[in-house]
Protein 1
Amino acid sequence: MERPTSYFGRHVFNEKAMRERLPKDVFEQLTSAINGGQQKLDSRIADVVAAAMKEWAISLGATHYAHWFHPRTELTAEKHMAFLSVDERGTPLEAFTGGELIQSEPDASSLPSGGTRSTFEARGYTAWDPTSPAFIIPTENGGTLCIPSVFLSWDGTPLDMKTPLLKAITAIEERAMRMLRLFGNRGIRWVKVTVGAEQEFFLIDEELARRRPDLVLCGRTVIGCLPPKGQQLEDHYFGAIHPRVLAYMEEAEQELHKLGIAIKTRHDEVAPCQFEFAPQFTEANLATDQNQITMSTMKRIARCHGLRLLLHEKPFAVINGSGKHTNFSLMDSDGHNLLEPSTSQRRNVQFLAFLGGLLLGVSKYSSLLRASVASPGNMYRLGGNEAPPAIMSVYLGNALTDVLNRLEEGFPDEIPTKGLMDLGLNKLPSIKKENSDRNRTAPLAFTGNKFEFRATGASQSIAGPLTMLLTIWAWGIEEVTNRIESRLGNTDIADATLDVLRDVAKESMAIRFEGNCYDPEWHEEARRRGLPIANATPEALAYYLIPENRDLLSGLNVMTDREITAYYETRLEQYVKTVDIEMAVMDDMIRHGILPSISRQITQEGSALEKAASLLDDGLETWKGHMKTLCGIKEALLQKLEELKNFRKKIKMEELEDSASLITGDGLKLMNEIRSLSDAAESWIADDLQPFPPYRDLLVIH
Ligand code: ADP
Ligand code: MG
């Protein structure tokens, strides 16, 4: 057995590979560009890097390269190009130039753009992002060198998730540096955003999954009775991992290690067949790419183990859904975590100023956070009794809340960091105690030395939520810095900051909530506080269009006004199309599966009832009643399918926003009605007549 340290990063063109394969001056220019140096890469360097990258990739079996990018579908995209070329004499050779490394023109005209380009001017370009290292996805007969890239239209309009993220990262890093300078940190060279995304997922037997059109086509079930044993006992949570799942996890981890991704934790989650992987945190742009690589690698390896990976936010009704807790903080070039409370008062003043920036930003722009997690799948999760509600609030924990409430008395000498807790068991050592208890119900929570955003959906790219979080925080940091600076004439920095933070504590009262966010009382309270509440996806997406939000995004150079509109439209269109596909799949499964099964059940029951009636003179009223129920369900389902057909016709005739609101209103209601009827039928159909594997079987791994 090879040790993970020996193969970690083998498939990544990382610093080690670059150092080995690049001339020293090229290596230095490239790493300086990667680490935020001012100088842009010139094309001579690109040629040298391309040649080294090609040789490295070919030595690992790669035959192709691809610019790997993040269109606005939440997934990644790639168009493979062969290294193989033939020269004018017919001699085969392997070619890859600097030009090809820097830019590619995949066209990609069918990817969503929200109307920012029409097909006749559809050219799309991808451009190399050297800040995220190239990597190889190996296959049995070769492999592909993937080059992380941004995706732009012919006129430079961004069409992807990465470009706005990179801009938001720049926005916050610049402002964080300014605040650090204000606090007298002279030697700091850079600030980076650090991110770790905890990935929840379901694993289902592939054979069973394949027999369910809803799982195959939608990634979630649209019909199905609840299993007799779901998550009532919570006995799956942190249980011993099933050997088949563990074997899968080990292989997935090994593949991810080779791709430079360190998976730190793995465990069973609350729902049956639900699990979680958490990586070691890293720089935000890289963490985003790594999460995409993690999702696709996990999907690929699952197939090899006869398993199907489900990343949907709500694959099964009533059973818990999957999220992706997005942990984030800021780190400076001395390795300090800027959200780490400290025993030094000077550092704590600075810590509170960064914290204050986030509180102020969320107070003003929490609707953007809500918009960033609005997706068709996440709608079934947010607001359920398992995930944070659709209201964006911040949880700070007792210790910090206390600090903020007592700013009138001045700064505390010390903010409790992890203290020691004596267990009172004399043979065990003392352990570290957290400074914040864990309220699991808040969407945005301080967890000791970082924030955790819990509303991200499991299938989402974290680029969307991160872009909004970082933009909001960047604005808040700038605001706090400005306010401190404007007071500096009269007082010293600590007093100026104290003064500003007192205001911030007051101004952020509305979004701070320490109680149980699942409590219906909180919804009432949030309404009284005037917080934005959007339960449905289209309502939440419309928050992008609020003039203040648009001004923020364009003001901080994250997205232009035109891009915001396009982004909104892309998302809304995705919502309408996704629900329409789900309706079509539901219709198909009921028409071709459930309805014929009901008839077979009626036929069997009918002949049994006839026989029974011929043996007995009277009675059998309950049985006869049951037959009526079955016939009634069939009749009602037929009627509802007709309604569904007409509804789908109707929404196709409407403008985008109108069809979205029709879907949210009548459409989802109709789907619920159909599902109830179908599930009632399923509960009466004999096992050998069931058209689809039931929840009872799906939610068990053998
Ligand atoms: P918990 O959610 O219980 O706090 P961990 O402390 O293991 O669990 O952290 C969960 C995730 O948060 C991991 O992916 C971890 O790498 C990430 N994380 C930890 N510290 C930071 C940080 N300073 N910045 C960003 N992410 C972090
Ligand atoms: Mg966590």
Protein 2
Amino acid sequence: MSQFERKDEQNHPRTQVPEFTQMVEQSLSRRRFLGGAAALGAVAFFSASPVSRAIAAATGNSPLLGFKAVPASTADTIVVPEGYQVERLISWGDPLFSGVAEFKDKGGNTAADQAKQFGDNNDGMSFFPVDDNTAILAINNEYCNYEIMFPHQGKNMSAEDVKCAQAAHGVSVLTIKKQADGWRVEKDGKYNRRIDANTPMAISGPAKGHPLLQTAADPKGELALGTINNCANGMTPWGTYLTCEENVNKYFGTREQIEISPALARYGMAAEDAGFLWNRFDPRFDLAKNPNEPNRFGWVVEIDPKDPTSTPIKRTALGRFKHENAELVIDKDGHVVVYLGDDERGEHLYRFVSKGKYNPNDQAANRELLDEGTLYVAKFHAGQDGELKGKGEWIELSHGKNGLTKENGFASQAEILIHARLAATQVGATTMDRPEWVAAHPHEPVVFCTLTNNKNRGVKDNQPVGGPNPRAENHYGQIVRWRPTGGSHTAAGFDWDLFVLAGNPTVHGEGLYAGSANINADNMFNSPDGIGFDQGGRLWIQTDGKYSNEGDFAGQGNNQMLCADPDSGEIRRFLTGPIACEITGLAFSPDQKTLFVGVQHPGEDLVGSHFPMGGDSTPRSSVMIITREDGGIIGA
Ligand code: FEO
Ligand code: CA
Ligand code: CA
């Protein structure tokens, strides 16, 4: 694979269509999955009225979903339901401050300009209300597409190009104002800020200062520079933003002959980088020169969006891996619980439980809650007789427990957190089909996680078919759901089932690749990725998958966003994106009447998108604003 193909593979892997001759499908048939119906619908799962719920799913009568579905699309535009309108809020390269150059189409933006422009490839985002007409949007800028950013350079990168790319990464914090015609970005707004790959960040929690985090530039191991590959997000009730560092290995490499340690290899570090070439121009990313620098990435970073002078904080208690999002809930017992996915084939699902309790009457006292607590990793037990539901447990990743001892290579809690993946393997955690976003229901203790796809399932020895990962060479993905024992997010165990198996009933007819009963010819999709609830309890699903519209993906069109009723299991397509994009990132205004949605990497690999400006313009990742013409609640 070329460097660029490797990069692409890591950020939004193109799954392979399985060879049917190799396919090892489970003995379960689609009919049986339906028959166990149960598999569908919270009520079916949690109580005893599967029949009525199954009918609701089949007939499309969900009381939660009030919009007319949109068909699949391959057009280079964004489509929303009848009665809805969509506008552009901001695109890659738009200046956040006066005196900063406007975006230059076809390349040529300087690093200095990019450092004060909206970053590239927007991903997860959160809405922070300030007053009735003012709010803050904190938005991740995950990575960049060099073929679009530097069309004039090919692979002949310069130091200036690398600086520009570094400035396009990180987080953009925007002040937005509610005008007569809706929410708009305020240039020079009080909260406007760019955080990028060179912004100073405190390292905090149990791994702070550990020798593995020390570098020549920071001998104490307490102050890192920058955040990169910021995928999805989270927010806290004390008003901070959580940004999650995902494929951080892509930026590291070296031209020197070195041996990569097993620990670095487990995190995907290799002498050859993924094509970003930062290590050629910035020795911080050269593995031979700075072997500990990679340990300072792969964390969840907490940012105070209301204070543009604040120092972001890397919270090491939440573990180091390829973080997708950070779904934070306050348990009924007062502890802060954060659910965390590690998005790589055969990696794991984690849970952090704070030591302290949340105090709603003293937000200042909550500020350090993410520094002390216990990290756990999920083990799913297979259902009886192959049923797609069962029990699970959270295994503690604490020093001295569950084999996490010095003899087994874990000398301290800090080492467990820095090498969380190795610790998860040590304790026998379940290897998953790429855990992406986790979303907790706003009103009841039930949690959902997208497992986007996994071509290695049933192929690699450590990734057997079974439990919540029931399909070999899984190229469609699924959403697993669990209910903590006793309704407490801090409980040791849970019951799981599959909310949906994405698939293609038109191509496959029967069997697990057709998808679960709530998938039909009108709502099929592949590779669920972003998910989140609105306050009404609707589950929104965004996709990052194959958009070929051919073969196993025929009839699925471009990447899209759907809306589900978590009780009935009904899923309805809400939006379709432009060519070669991924739909990722969602945030609602508190009145639920404005939905902010991210369109990431339209036209990647130069496949011919000109979104959003049209003509022959450069395609640009953008945040869109969706409202109803009648001013009503989105989705209702
Ligand atoms: Fe950045 Fe796993 O998506
Ligand atoms: Ca993805
Ligand atoms: Ca994602």
Protein 3
Amino acid sequence: MRIGQGYDIHRLVAGRPLILGGVTIPSEKGEAAHSDGDVLIHALIDALLGALAQGDIGTHYPPSDPKWKDADSRFLLRETLEKVSAAGYRIGNIDCTVILEQPKLGPHRESIRNGLQEDLKIPLDCISFKAKTKEKQDAAGRGEAVEAMAAVLLLPL
Ligand code: C5P
Ligand code: MG
């Protein structure tokens, strides 16, 4: 078995969609990014690459490379899943936390888990999603950023 963890943060700006796990969440602000800025999938990709000890999202999919610039995060996630199986592993379970002052994500938990399941193709009870505020502290707490953390366990194929 192999364990991995990942983290990401994106600035939040008005007029951009808030996309988490491939799902667009109704929100006044969304992630500032070239791509969709899906902070949750970016953290998850880093957790998967970390479990494989194969570097990180920036080394595999550099935004400086036209091939990856503006890439759909779900496409990058599927590319990463192929690296997981090529290394002889499959996902056992994942556990994710998004830190966001508002909106509340509890009402969107199931759609986010379902969104992740579309790409991960593992049982829903192996996909955990949680949300926290930053208690009004620092950038995330002021509503200027959204953060995500992910942990994964890989099992042999
Ligand atoms: O950050 P705090 O401990 O106050 O969050 C309390 C609960 O509010 C969390 O456990 C979670 O269920 C929910 N929450 C949420 N959406 C957020 C932040 C927190 O649903 N953006
Ligand atoms: Mg990111």
